Records
---
Amino acid sequence: MTHLSSLLADARPTDVSLEARELSMGYAQSLIIDTLNLTIPSGQVSAIVGPNGCGKSTLLAGLARLHKPSAGSVLLDGKAIGSLPSREVARRLALLPQDASAPDGLTVSELIRFGRQPHQSLLRQWSEEDQAIVDAALAAADLVELADRPLESMSGGQRQRAWLAMAIAQTTPLLLLDEPTSALDLGHQIEVFELIRELAAAGKTIVMVVHDLSSACRYADHLIAMHQGRIVASGSPNDIVTPQLVERLYGVRCTLLSDPLSGTPVIAGVSRL
């Protein structure tokens, strides 16, 4: 995967703030998120971790305005996100959902062009700058040679990178990713995580749901550990990840090692209680 082009770096967004206040969400009669308070650190990569069913994806959907709270609020730059016009939200926040889908026949480059839609209007039509950003996003996601391929003809990992490229092309200051490496092999997982680090270095604030705790520790600046709809710990990986936290989250014993390259925690010697 190539490095982000200077063009994407030049489209450096301003700081953005995202927080949840007394947030509760659920489905039907089931409460998933319970009175949660959260402030996303600006200009950093935050990873939401925790066991299946703890509310990670529900929280991300609430932060992205896809799921309406039953109580509390989500604030984007200090304003209730539900009160903001959709186009304004789309210029500040891009979302890569876990189950993204597209119409049959849509090519990679056509999908990525949709990322520029929030920036179009009657007074601002497609420009050379838009095309240059699409080209840069294709290069960043290592998809230049696949630009004219229909999405349905590609592997799950290739499609995942195409969706990530569309989110990159949106050039928002805030990027929300729901398990961005779930369909990728190990090599492409590393490439996507390294791209995420480049995006943060270019000024973006990134929130991602991550299934693998060791990967979250290595690539995130800030962890948000969830259990049964509540945040049980938050902070830098080296500060909060302990065998006791792993046991509380996943119900297993483990040994913590230090990654020789990053110095971050690596989970090893896992066994049931």
Note: The CA atoms of residues 179 and 209 lie 5 Å apart.
---
Amino acid sequence: MLNHLDHLPPGLLDRDAQELHDVLGGPTLIELPGRREPPLFVSVLLHGNEPVGWQAVQALLARMPEPLPRALCLFIGNVAAARDGLRRLDGQPDYNRVWPGGEDHDGAEARMMRDVVERLRQRGVFASVDVHNNTGLNPHYACVNRLEHPFLQLATLFGRTVVHFLRPTGVQSAAMAALCPAVTLECGRPGEMHGVEHASEYLEACLRLSEIPTHAVAAHDIDLFHTAATLKVPDDVGLSFDGSHTDLMFHPDIERLNFRELAAGTELGRLGEGGRGRLQVTDEAGRDVGEDWIGIDGDRLLLARRAMPSMLTLDERVVRQDCLCYLMERLPPPGS
């Protein structure tokens, strides 16, 4: 399934994300030379409806002279889903849940990701960057899977807001963390040029780095959060964001709660009649922690404790394929 190239196919940088399947035919690893080794690894389009990574790479490579300041390994992921503007196609796994360390060990996509990681292990990697859009209203931020100084230095090069998470598993950044400092970038919604520009400038800065600092990030330069719980809507539970009567009726502006520190008792939505409205809430070990985080008062669905949501979206398809949101708590920076 994996194409492996040592050059950019002619005209590739002129194609938008929906056209890449016509040129590449499938997931592709492209290794480009540079003045420094080892390479920077960048993955884009692990979700087909998140084109910011590809757009950032287009802008980057169009303006940078050859050879690049540092070698670049570029993985272009789910081009089939990108053709249709979807996170993933029906019947496909999530391309950011099948990397080594996840629950899928035997699927074709999981084997492909193992091949990518093994190639990078053999060659060596300077750093890893996985670039994403959000479907909901969120600020730009970076995510890490390890609270080590080089990881946090790489994250704060993007911005001061940093999220540490352990679940979901099978994500690119966690797999690459075994080889090098690794981050995931969340660059706002698709279509926002500021996200493209921010990501492109960040990738250029990474290519120009001679080394990644190993000392602690200054406490005043980072706002650090930890993902403590994941909220999902069970498949057999109806949901709406527009007031339509069903099992779970969320507020139509719920995505505006993202990255706001909310008090216990904050209302998230309402429950329909019949008692079917419920959320599946798990912690980073996969344990059911619903009673710790969610309360019910009559038909009101409430936060049971202080928390900061992220990734809230009004896109029901994304909620079904991924989750409703994550709940975060603030952490002190390591070394502070």
Note: Residues 18 and 102 are 28 Å apart (CA to CA).
---
Amino acid sequence: MKVLIDIPDAKAPYLMDVLQHISYVKAKPLTAKKALLLSEIKDAVEEMKQIKAGKKQARNFSEFLDEL
């Protein structure tokens, strides 16, 4: 199982030390770019779920391109 945990930077070294001392846990920090990418993908998936559920209106492709 994979788990993504968001913790304050000041507490990260302690938690990473604890996790690395557990033999069955493999822990490695994400780079800022990867963390941002994961966050954006999560937001996009949530938006798609809302559109499919009818809670949000989909935009047409030309509006999307204009946003870029």
Note: Residues 6 and 30 are 10 Å apart (CA to CA).
